[in-house]
Amino acid sequence: MQSISIATFNVNSVKARLSNLLVWLDEAKPDIVLLQELKCMEEAFPAMEIEERGYNLAIHGQKTYNGVAILSKFPLDDILRGLPGDDSDEQARYIEAVASIPGGAVRIASAYVPNGQSVDSDKFPYKLRFLERLQDHWRRQLSLHEIAVLGGDFNNAPDPIDVYDPAQLDGSVCYHPAERERLRALLNLGLYDAFRVMHPDKQQFSWWDYRANGYERGHGLRIDHLLLSAMAVDGLQSCVIDEVPRQQEKPSDHAPVICVLNV
DNA sequence: ATGGTTGAACCTCAA
């Protein structure tokens, strides 16, 4: 039995955010980190600075947009780049691997669900299809009955408590019934929202718009999630949203979410 | 407040 910490963090450009990311890594010292929105190719990823802090890397990069990675103090194997279910999808929004921990293994995935832009955009049906592909893929992965964590930026707030003004935001992107229904279906496969398991009634957000002083005004959404398999949630010790990086100079618009598991 | 800001890369798009 040992404790491992697993975090998810949408950095909104790993190159622009490198100094903030390194400060946070040195402070929080997570064992495994799921990154989203690298906005660079794998060869441009600042591997040296991360590796010298003891992390192994699995990267699925893309120029300008998207890009996801897994940082792990444990060796990574069986790396899967790209979400199955649509061979024509060239966006780098998903990476999965198996981390070998002493005496066992944890399956981990970093997902960057499409934002969808607006409900009448053609990007919104792509978002809905992506959530359905996640459901199809994780139906299969959960049948393996492993310790597994699907984390990332889901661009989707599950419940009214997860948005700053549910009445105003109802039906808008990131809080539309069609996408919340699909996130609910994914959870209903047997995934547990770590933050909500630990804090049933707490309102805290993980993203705030850069515009109009969103953070200062508390205009946020909880859209970054750590979803745990049954075997993983059995060992869940804590889950927090760390707002400190959001308060720094030149922050990402997201805050990291961190959980500790006994495995 | 139908605006506002940020990042990458190009003079605009995605978020």
Task: Walk me through this protein's architecture.
It is a single chain. With 263 residues, the chain is of the alpha+beta class. It has one domain (3-262): Deoxyribonuclease I, Chain A (4-Layer Sandwich). The protein has helices at residues 18-28, 47-51, 123-142, 166-169, 177-187, 194-198, 230-233; strands at 3-10, 32-36, 56-60, 68-72, 76-81, 94-101, 104-112, 148-153, 192-193, 207-208, 220-221, 224-228, 236-241, 257-262. The protein has a 6-stranded mixed beta sheet. Strands 5-6-7-8-12-9 form a 6-stranded mixed beta sheet. Helix 3 runs parallel beside helix 5 (177-187). It starts with a strand and ends with a strand. The model has no long low-confidence stretch (mean pLDDT 97). The structure holds one DNA strand of 15 nucleotides.
Features:
14 strands, six-stranded mixed sheet, 7 helices, DNA-binding, alpha+beta, 263 residues, Deoxyribonuclease I, Chain A
Mind sketching the topology for me?
Layout: E1 3-10, H1 18-28, E2 32-36, H2 47-51, E3 56-60, E4 68-72, E5 76-81, E6 94-101, E7 104-112, H3 123-142, E8 148-153, H4 166-169, H5 177-187, E9 192-193, H6 194-198, E10 207-208, E11 220-221, E12 224-228, H7 230-233, E13 236-241, E14 257-262
Parallel strand pairs: 1-2, 7-8
Antiparallel strand pairs: 1-14, 2-4, 3-4, 5-6, 6-7, 8-12, 9-12, 10-11, 13-14
Helix pairs in contact: 3-5
The protein binds one DNA strand of 15 nucleotides through loops.
Multimerization state: single chain
Give the low-pLDDT segments: none
CATH topology: Deoxyribonuclease I, Chain A
Spatial sequence of strands, sheet with the most strands: 3-4-2-1-14-13
Shape: globular
Please give the count of helices. 7
What is the terminal separation in angstroms? Answer: 5 Å
Mean pLDDT: 97
Q: How are helices and strands ordered from N to C?
A: EHEHEEEEEHEHHEHEEEHEE
In CATH, the architecture is 4-Layer Sandwich
Total domains, how many? 1
Q: What structural class should be given to the helix and strand makeup?
A: alpha+beta
The CATH fourth-level homologous superfamily: Endonuclease/exonuclease/phosphatase
